[in-house]
Amino acid sequence: MAANATFDFDLLARLTDAPGPAGYEDRVRDVVRDELPAVDAVRTDAMGNVVATVRGSADPDYEVLVAAHMDEIGLIVSDVDDDGFLSVEALGGWNPDALRGQPVTVHTRAGDYDGVVGITAAHTAADEAPADWTLDDAHVFTGLDPEEANERFGVGDVVTFDSDLRELGECVTGSSLDDRAGVYVLLEAARRADPDVTVHYAATVQEEVGLRGATALGVDVDPDLVVALDGTLEQSYPGIDPSNVITKLGEGVGIKRKDASVIATPGVAERFESVAENRDIGFQREVSWNIGTDTGGLQTAGGARPVGALSIPVRYHHSAVETANANDIEAAVDLLTAFLDAEDGTLW
């Protein structure tokens, strides 16, 4: 991979290979806790958010919360029919077409099982193929005979893409880069930063189903400043109107100005830009209209507070082939680290 020499592919692969649909982030949480550097305190709250705290060396009373969500989109089993096929409901926002013809993994208390979501054969008569394919048409087949399938699987089991992280030139591709790439940035910044103020590094849960973990965490921690890390839309590929391109692969970390859930505090965004310019870190301004992030949940939870966000451009969002540029990911690490090291407790 011809990418930033500090990029740790193996760490990102550990994070993306751990299944963690919304509400079922346990295995990702185990990786996060295992990969955290030495900190002053680590705790897991009742929802499953992990918070690692580094006390400030100069101004410990000023507190910054840095958050990235552990969960990915997934599915939850709603029925097992007499033929052993699993019906599913969404955990998070899905384009149903992303499921067609995909290998998946079914996660049960007894273990994991391979499965596939089928696709109508090209030879099928047009009137037999669904014109508008929806999740109601998605049925997981595991290869087990119907009786065994009904014994092993049940309502409430969860399903994720079966997709390993791979290298594509300077890029990486696989499922759950939204937002395991953000969790990677959080962990790497925790290793590298030496802040004067107190920093809470939080790996949150249930972002994909309504920013739920972050909203609860904002009350529990009550920080003076919030920085969220997440993927953002990258649509610079054929078939997309150029006016709808929000960010581009390889052009740096996104500094959020607005999304559907939040308007970033202008002073925070401007400070990010100033730090990036002074450190020669590539960045691009992000204004999006159709995504939400933990930033929105944290801005008002427990009272108003200033917020900022860094975004990693991710192409083919919410699919088995989410794609990000390793240099953009490392730019996010560099900018967050420099920002935290420069934070002096100035109130916004």
TrEMBL record:
Q: Which InterPro entries match?
A: Peptidase_M42 (IPR008007), Peptidase_M42_aminopept (IPR051464), Peptidase_M42_dom2 (IPR023367)
Any note on cofactor binding?
Answer: Binds 2 divalent metal cations per subunit.
| Gene3D superfamilies for the chain | Peptidase M42, domain 2 (2.40.30.40), Zn peptidases (3.40.630.10)
Supply one GO BP term.
proteolysis
List positions binding Zn(2+) 1.
H69, D178, D230
| Residues bound to Zn(2+) 2 | D178, E208, H318
Mind listing the UniProt keywords for this protein, alphabetically? Aminopeptidase, Hydrolase, Metal-binding, Protease
Listed cofactors = a divalent metal cation
Protein name in the entry: Cellulase
Q: Could you cite one Gene Ontology molecular function of this protein?
A: metal ion binding
| Similarity annotation | Belongs to the peptidase M42 family.
Which SUPFAM superfamilies does its entry note? Answer: Aminopeptidase/glucanase lid domain (SSF101821), Zn-dependent exopeptidases (SSF53187)
Active site at E207
Instruction: List the taxonomic lineage.
Output: Archaea, Methanobacteriati, Methanobacteriota, Stenosarchaea group, Halobacteria
